[in-house]
């Protein structure tokens, strides 16, 4: 019996600002700052202090606030944002700044790069040209590892992008959870899953890797959230927790008739298999695969096909071997952007197993 495994499933010092003399100058100090997404161990928010003019004659002064959201002390940080068309940097303070290819990049000065967890600093920029609120992103050297390795050997692996999704498993399959270091170990609600192992996660500073086994038909929810050391400081930081939930449905393997059940997954691509009449073939692939085609007909019969593109759910298809012969069970990946008015250049990945059925 073949039961292959799979894993499915970013000049130092102060520079005096140029004096601004322009008609129609608007002061917007104290307005609500725009907040960047928390990535790379820090956040950057920007407040537009004043704006004047429009188009090429416009300009603005902005203040950026950098907060270390990691659980370790940062020693340097970088903030970047796309410049509007024809927008340029006039001057800056408390940072070293450069613009290349339409992107502005600000780095810490020698005296404001060290930030304890939850600590913050500010820098300012004067921009000329069209007025628009920058949308910054931030990274620092205290960020947890950005590459999360899935647990080895899991039949199905889920990551942060799978938040709020539903995954279907067969009884006996294993589920791997791979999340960033600021997530707590997941908790299980429901009896369909049993914990097998867990490592990393907050407060270890290491990526979170956990595995679970599907033990009985039913449902279960995996839940966790992010946490940060600065939330326990005095005073605590205002960094919000990010919630993550996975819904799991566990089902029995399809009836196998009189023979064995063979489960094939992504690594079995191009494999030659031999089954006997009465055996069951189960194809388990990621959600971006189309339902398989069977060529020629009459050797195996589809019993159940669920998920696959465009449902957003993992593809699970089962076939009963009914007659001797040779047959290919094949499918291909698809992507919604390929069907847009201007299709994206997304390549398609073909998957096939060559099946021989004997009496």
TrEMBL record:
Pfam families xref list: CBM_2 (PF00553)
Domain of life the protein comes from: Bacteria
Residues making up the signal peptide according to the UniProt record: 1-22
Keyword tags: Signal
Coiled-coil segments on the chain, per record: none
Family matches, as InterPro entries: CBD2 (IPR001919), CBM2/CBM3_carb-bd_dom_sf (IPR008965), CBM2_carb-bd_dom_sf (IPR012291), TAT_signal (IPR006311)
Annotated CBM2 domain residues: 35-148
One GO MF term: polysaccharide binding
Region ranges (Disordered): 128-155
Protein name as it appears in the record: Cellulose binding domain-containing protein
Origin species: Micromonospora rifamycinica
């Amino acid at each position: 019996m073949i039961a292959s495994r799979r894993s499915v499933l970013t000049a130092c010092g102060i520079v005096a600002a140029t004096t601004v003399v322009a008609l129609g100058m608007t002061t917007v100090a104290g307005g609500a700052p725009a907040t960047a997404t928390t990535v790379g161990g820090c956040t950057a928010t920007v407040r537009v202090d004043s704006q004047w003019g429009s188009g090429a004659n416009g300009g603005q002064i902005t203040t950026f606030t950098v907060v270390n959201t990691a659980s370790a002390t940062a020693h340097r940080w970088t903030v970047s944002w796309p410049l509007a068309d024809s927008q340029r940097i006039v001057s800056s303070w408390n940072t070293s700044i450069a613009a290349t290819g339409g992107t502005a990049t600000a780095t810490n000065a020698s005296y404001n790069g060290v930030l304890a967890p939850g600590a913050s600093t500010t820098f300012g920029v004067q921009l000329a040209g069209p007025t628009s609120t920058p949308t910054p992103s931030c990274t620092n050297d205290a960020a947890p590892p950005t590459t999360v390795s899935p647990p080895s050997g899991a039949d199905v692996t889920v990551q942060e992008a799978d938040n709020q999704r539903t995954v279907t498993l067969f009884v006996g399959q294993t589920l791997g959870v791979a999340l960033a270091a600021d997530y707590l170990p997941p908790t299980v609600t429901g009896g369909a899953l049993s914990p097998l192992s867990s490592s990393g996660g907050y407060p270890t500073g290491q990526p979170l890797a956990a595995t679970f086994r599907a033990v009985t038909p039913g449902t279960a929810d995996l839940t966790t959230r992010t946490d940060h050391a600065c939330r326990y400081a005095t005073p605590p930081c205002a960094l919000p927790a990010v919630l993550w939930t996975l819904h799991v449905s566990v089902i029995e393997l399809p009836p196998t008739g009189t023979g064995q059940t063979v489960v094939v997954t992504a690594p079995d691509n191009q494999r030659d298999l031999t089954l006997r009449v009465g055996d069951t073939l189960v194809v388990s692939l990621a959600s971006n695969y189309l339902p398989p085609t069977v060529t020629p007909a009459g050797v195996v019969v589809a019993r159940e096909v669920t998920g696959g593109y465009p449902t957003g759910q993992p593809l699970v298809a089962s076939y009963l071997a009914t007659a001797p012969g040779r047959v290919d069970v094949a499918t291909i990946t698809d992507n919604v952007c390929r069907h847009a008015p201007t299709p994206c250049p997304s390549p398609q990945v073909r998957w096939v197993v060559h099946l021989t059925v004997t009496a």
